[in-house]
Automatic annotation (TrEMBL):
Its cofactor is Mg(2+). Its EC number is 2.7.3.9. It catalyses: L-histidyl-[protein] + phosphoenolpyruvate = N(pros)-phospho-L-histidyl-[protein] + pyruvate. It is found in: Cytoplasm. GO terms for cellular component: cytoplasm. Belongs to the PEP-utilizing enzyme family. The active site is at C254 (proton donor). GO terms for biological process: phosphoenolpyruvate-dependent sugar phosphotransferase system. Its main location: cytoplasm. Residues 3-292 form the PEP-utilising enzyme C-terminal domain. Phosphoenolpyruvate binds at R48, R84, N206, D207, R217. It comes from the Bacteria. This is Phosphoenolpyruvate-protein phosphotransferase.
Length: 323
């Protein structure tokens, strides 16, 4: 069995009826990018940059960040690397930022909210990412976007970073894709408007579930309610993928649902384009995708969307048989 899974690394993630999806990996350090192509990942779908900021007693300089992002981009040899801007706050602290204690940190001063308030921090990070883009295919992604203002403010800062670098004569790519994570329900509900302006979406189910069902993802007392098969979550995922498709944009998923092979018939049926997961899940998800027929999965997904509970959806997925 292990042998069979390993030999899958070189095969494409293509369905029985010839639909190709992109399987990508989540990383937290540039070193993790090194072995990914050999493991069958075609891209990095989420590079969490928090570790770069958490490992030290001070803010990493533009140069340090540039070196880290460039290393990841180079390791992927032209394959895409989606780098997420700093997602600090919530459960992750940075001593040197001197963040105030909050009653509801997950609803508070976090991620893009903090970065748009501390513009220099975000501008420095964006400059490092854009410079790294000259050494591979870097895509930039903003976390925790809740509406159009935040997206536009972040995009404007990206443009400002480009203008600065160009004026300095730095080597920068002519074009980079810039997208947003969809992990706040308001963003999912505005997906049609966001899709006009962004280059891509990546659905963060870890937070999207927490915010949609109002369940603290760290609280064990209410963990039984935390489920990405919740029908409301599935409905939002469909909304997002459909909106992107209408505007010719692609949708990825980088939350843990993407790494669950039992979710594959549903996600394939909804039309998800890119699946990004812990590298240990790549083989199992690829095996699942290669055994599926998208036309049948579409019909099946339409039926799943009518079910009333997460338990029913899970059960239907477990019983799913292709003809
Ligand atoms: C998510 O929320 O699904 C996600 C991928 O981001 P993180 O787990 O880093 O919050
Ligand atoms: Mg998240």
């Amino acid at each position: 069995e292990q042998e069979r899974l390993r030999s899958l690394a070189d095969l494409p993630a293509v369905t029985l009826d010839g639909v190709t999806v992109e399987l990508a990996a989540n990383i937290g350090t540039p070193q993790e990018a090194a072995g990914l192509l050999a493991k069958g990942a075609e891209a990095v779908g989420l590079y969490r940059t928090e570790f770069l900021f958490m490992g030290t007693g001070a803010m990493p300089s533009e140069e340090e960040q540039y070196r880290a992002y460039r290393e990841a981009a180079a390791a992927m040899q032209g394959h895409a690397v989606v780098i997420r801007t700093l997602d600090i706050g919530g459960d992750k602290e940075l001593p040197y930022l001197d963040l105030p204690k909050e009653m509801n940190p997950f609803l508070g001063y976090r991620a893009i909210r903090l970065c748009l308030d501390r513009r220099e921090l975000l501008l420095t990070q964006l400059r490092a990412m854009i410079r790294a883009g000259a050494h591979g295919t870097v895509k930039i992604m903003f976390p925790m976007i809740s509406g159009m203002e935040e997206w536009r403010a972040a995009k404007e800062l990206y443009e400002e970073a480009r203008t600065q670098l160009a004026a300095e004569g730095a080597e920068i790519p002519a074009f980079m894709e810039v997208g947003v994570m969809i992990e706040v329900p308001s963003a999912a509900l505005l997906a049609d408007r966001l899709a006009r302006e962004v280059d891509f979406f990546s659905i963060g189910t870890n937070d999207l579930v927490q915010y949609t069902v109002a369940v603290d993802r760290m609280n064990e007392k209410v963990a039984y309610l935390y489920d990405y098969f919740h029908p409301a979550v599935i409905g939002l995922i469909k909304t997002v993928i459909d909106a992107a498709a209408r505007h010719g944009k692609w949708t990825g998923m980088c939350g843990s649902m993407a790494g669950d092979p039992s979710a594959a018939p549903l996600l394939l049926g909804l039309g998800l384009n890119e699946w990004s997961m812990a590298s240990g899940s790549l083989h199992r998800v690829k095996a699942a995708v290669r055994g599926l027929n998208q036309t049948q999965c579409k019909a099946f997904a339409a039926k799943l969307l009518e079910l009333d509970t997460a338990a029913e959806i899970r059960q239907a997925l477990a019983n799913f048989q292709q003809s």
